[in-house]
Structures are given as structure tokens and as C-alpha cells.
Amino acid sequence: MATVKPFLMFQDGNAQAALDLYFATFPDSGMLQVERYTQDGLGLAGTIKVAVFTLCGREFMCSDSPVKHNFSFTPSSSIFVEFDSVAELEHVFGILSKDGGVLMPLDNYGFSQRFGWINDRFGVSWQLNYAG
């Protein structure tokens, strides 16, 4: 059976800092396995070669790319998170939007009572929605 996991590629050795922020922000989140670059590797020693982690119980993968690319994350691919409370949504929106960019401020857009879309400081795009 095949499996599917979203994969996040970070540049400039930011994967660990991003994961630290996400693990501190979302429940049921943490590292499952990680392999780091060594002195003999292509990437900067200590950065993430490949990691498997969970956010809200869902598995993801990520890496720090040793190759410099002319692209980064784009909002056309985002992580959609539904919250059980407006207070929790607003709290996470505040954390993830700090030093990032707001694409759609928290508001009632008709399809949702409370919705916001942001890019965090690492460039990862998040759609945050109140499920009520």
C-alpha cells in the first residue's frame, strides 16, 4: 500500500527552527525520526537531511535543502488547520503570522465564520479555519 505525506523543503537551515515553532504551537505534534547532515554530507553539518514528524497527529516530512533554489514555498500549496474554538484559532494565527505575512486577515468570508490565511516567517502557507 502506498502512503502520502506532505513534504516541506526549507532553505538556509531553517527546518529545525520551523519545527520547534510548530511543535510548540500545535498539540499532538513532535519528531518521529530525524537524520541530520554530518561533516561529510552535502548539507551544513547538523541541519536536517530528512525528518518525519507529526502536526496534530498527521505525518509530514521535511528537509533542509543543501541546494540553493530560485523558489521557496508558495501559498498555492498550504496547510489547512481547523480549530474547535475561535480563541485557539486566534492564538495560533498570532503566533504563525509573527514576522510572516497575512494573505487574508481573520474575518467572516461567507464560507467560514472565522478564517485567516498567512505565510509564517519561514514561508510556509497556513489556512486557519474555525470549524464551528
Automatic annotation (TrEMBL):
One of the Pfam families matching this protein, by short name: 3-dmu-9_3-mt
Gene3D superfamilies, A to Z: 3.30.720.100, 3.30.720.110
Domain PhnB-like intervals: 4-128
Stated name of the protein: VOC family protein
Lineage: Bacteria, Pseudomonadati, Pseudomonadota, Betaproteobacteria, Burkholderiales
